[in-house]
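Example record

The entry below shows one chain as it appears in the dataset: sequence first, then structure tokens.
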Amino acid sequence: MADCTSIQTRLDAARAAYDDLAMGRSVRKFVDQNGESVEYTSANRQGLLAFITKLENDLAVCQGTVTSYRGPLRFTFGRRPY
């Protein structure tokens, strides 16, 4: 796993690419640490957003700030515990 600094650098680059796409600047090219390049257009902006979310989760794990998952909220209408 990469260190926190490299994850933060990649996250900043991905956020900048997403901002460029959101502002209408057509095609962005992102090169990751392995040298693989990916081109994002406005048509697959959701893929870039998913990548940003993954990097944010990786950074949270690296920094130790992961929040626990509590599960879905359930509603019980008209039921009272006895």
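Notes for this example: Strands lie at 28-31, 37-40. Residues 43 and 82 are 54 Å apart (CA to CA).
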